[in-house]
């Protein structure tokens, strides 16, 4: 049976991928949706994918980038049911086709990145919401996801776009580095060249507000009170971090606060042997959670630089300081591959099948992660099995309070719940039908990139946990980078 790939051409493109023998996961054969099997990303079917894609001229009038009459899963139906998403999918396909023409020897990297992006898109588009207002907000999020992808593809392999010397140097370092990109933003500056190989970063030390002046190397500190006054917490006993770049005679104070761990900067210079406050640039005025920023020295000039870090991307922005004013924002979007690590299993101490169950959970995660099409988890069920599965779903933990990963009392580093968007599915082992759940780890609105898989036994009346498995996900190799427009220009002036 063939698989329908979303976003691959103006007409439907069916590809018959090669598979791996011994796959423990049954094929998803939902008769209503005609869902087909996903068996990995063999070179052969990727080549067919590209060949078929190039048959579609980007000048042809497209709605979705695929034939909606053959929509075969929830992600495709979400796109086809919304005119705006359908139009954006067609635009994305046209941009991707043009990028492939420019890619040259980077075609394989672009195809890997497109596969990863489509999986991320599918995950967003497969979410189900009870409330229309929440569904509409998610749809807007998918629209923004498309708009940024289109902009990235339009600027990919266009060297004339490299407007910032600093970003050009960062992109060169990343493209020639053999090491995977560092996902931890606290030390990720080194991966971008912040160890001095590209740019110089300030030294940082934590003090109280009352004592911080003693560590600023200038006698005339009349302007320090204004710098301190712009901090969220300016009492003498409040903690503050001092960042200094003596070679540029530039410094800053910052504090971190709130649930989102937002960073508030107050910058200054002592170019004229006296502390003078400097306006905080836009890219340092919006750093929360996984976004972080700092100032840096590059080729005798002072820049603000920020990095919004995700598993498969780093969104890097810079602004150049000229006199006392910050220049326009320049932005580099970097894309990375990812890899799944060895699974961590939590089993009942009496279980004799822990290794086999772990392997089964790992296989589900590796298969699902590459497409994130919910229907791939389906197995053909007999009428009696469907009845049992429906009963399992009714007895399943309440999703409104987030489902807990089975850990059997073990200490777990990180989240112990399944994040929103996790899904139930039927799983089999040794002929037994179990209730399975797969998704990311999470707590409240927070989530991580690791895959969580759990299985529950059904005795006809109640569910009991069998195993919980965490498959860590790590950032992989550098794939691509492109100078792109600031987000405000892509999404609109009112978007942060």
Task: Give the topology, please.
Elements: E1 3-4, E2 14-15, H1 43-53, H2 74-80, H3 83-103, H4 107-125, H5 132-155, H6 165-176, H7 185-192, E3 203-208, H8 224-229, E4 239-245, E5 250-257, E6 262-269, E7 276-278, E8 291-298, E9 301-310, E10 313-322, E11 325-326, E12 330-340, E13 344-347, H9 354-369, H10 383-395, E14 417-418, E15 423-429, E16 432-443, E17 446-458, E18 463-471, E19 473-484, H11 487-491
Antiparallel strand pairs: 1-2, 3-4, 4-5, 5-6, 6-7, 8-9, 9-10, 10-11, 10-12, 12-19, 13-18, 14-16, 15-16, 16-17, 17-18
Helix pairs in contact: 2-4, 3-4, 3-5, 4-5
Protein name: DUF1311 domain-containing protein
Organism: Dyella dinghuensis
InterPro entries: Lysozyme_Inhibitor_LprI
Describe this structure in words.
The protein is an alpha+beta fold. It folds into 3 domains: 72-155, no CATH class; 165-338 and 477-484, no CATH class; 342-471, no CATH class. Helix content is 29%, strand content 27%. The chain is built from 11 helices and 19 strands. It has helices spanning 43-53, 74-80, 83-103, 107-125, 132-155, 165-176, 185-192, 224-229, 354-369, 383-395, 487-491, and strands at 3-4, 14-15, 203-208, 239-245, 250-257, 262-269, 276-278, 291-298, 301-310, 313-322, 325-326, 330-340, 344-347, 417-418, 423-429, 432-443, 446-458, 463-471, 473-484. It starts with a strand and ends in a 5-residue tail after the last helix. The model is unreliable at 1-62 (pLDDT under 50). One of its GO terms (cellular component) is extracellular region. This is DUF1311 domain-containing protein. It comes from Dyella dinghuensis.
């Amino acid at each position: 049976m063939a698989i329908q790939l979303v976003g691959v051409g103006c007409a439907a493109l069916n590809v018959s991928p090669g598979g791996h023998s011994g796959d423990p996961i049954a094929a998803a054969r939902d008769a209503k949706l005609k869902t087909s099997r996903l068996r990995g990303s063999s070179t052969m079917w990727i080549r067919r994918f590209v060949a078929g894609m190039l048959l579609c001229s980007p000048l042809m009038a497209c709605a979705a980038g695929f034939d909606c009459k053959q929509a075969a899963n929830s992600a495709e139906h979400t796109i086809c049911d919304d005119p705006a998403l359908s139009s954006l999918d067609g635009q994305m396909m046209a941009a991707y086709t043009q990028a492939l023409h420019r890619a040259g020897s980077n075609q394989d990297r672009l195809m890997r990145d497109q596969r990863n992006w489509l999986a991320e898109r599918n995950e967003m588009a497969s979410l189900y919401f009870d409330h229309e207002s929440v569904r509409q907000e998610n749809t807007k999020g998918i629209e923004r996801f498309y708009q940024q992808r289109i902009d990235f593809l339009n600027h990919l392999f266009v060297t004339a776009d490299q407007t910032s010397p600093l970003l050009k140097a960062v992109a060169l370092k990343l493209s020639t580095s053999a090491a995977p990109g560092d996902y931890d933003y606290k030390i990720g500056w080194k991966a971008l060249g912040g160890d001095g190989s590209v740019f110089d970063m300030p030294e940082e030390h934590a003090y109280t507000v009352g004592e911080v002046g003693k560590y600023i190397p200038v006698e005339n500190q009349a302007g320090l009170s204004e710098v301190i006054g712009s901090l969220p917490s300016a009492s003498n006993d409040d903690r503050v971090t001092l960042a200094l770049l003596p070679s540029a005679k530039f410094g800053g104070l910052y504090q971190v606060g709130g649930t989102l761990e937002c960073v508030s900067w107050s910058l200054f210079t002592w170019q004229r042997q006296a502390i003078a406050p400097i306006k905080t640039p836009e890219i340092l005025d919006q750093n929360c959670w996984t976004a972080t920023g700092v100032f840096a020295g590059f080729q005798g000039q002072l820049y603000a630089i920020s990095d919004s870090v995700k598993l498969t991307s780093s969104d890097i922005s810079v602004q150049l300081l000229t006199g006392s004013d910050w220049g326009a924002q320049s932005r580099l979007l970097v894309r990375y591959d990812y890899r799944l690590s060895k699974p961590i299993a939590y089993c009942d101490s009496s279980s004799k099948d822990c290794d086999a169950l772990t392997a089964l959970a790992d296989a589900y995660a590796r298969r699902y992660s590459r497409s994130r099409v919910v229907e791939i988890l389906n197995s053909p069920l007999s009428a009696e099995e469907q009845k049992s599965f429906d009963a399992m779903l009714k007895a399943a933990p309440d999703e409104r309070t987030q489902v807990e990963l089975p850990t059997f009392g073990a200490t777990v580093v990180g989240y112990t719940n399944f994040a929103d968007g996790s899904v139930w599915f039927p799983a089999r082992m040794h002929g037994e039908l179990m209730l399975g759940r797969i998704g990311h780890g999470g707590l409240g609105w927070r989530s991580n990139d690791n895959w969580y898989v759990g299985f529950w036994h059904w005795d006809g009346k109640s569910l009991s946990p069998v195993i919980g498995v965490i498959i860590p996900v790590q950032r992989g190799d550098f794939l691509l980078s492109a100078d792109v427009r600031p987000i405000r220009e892509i999404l609109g002036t009112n978007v942060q």
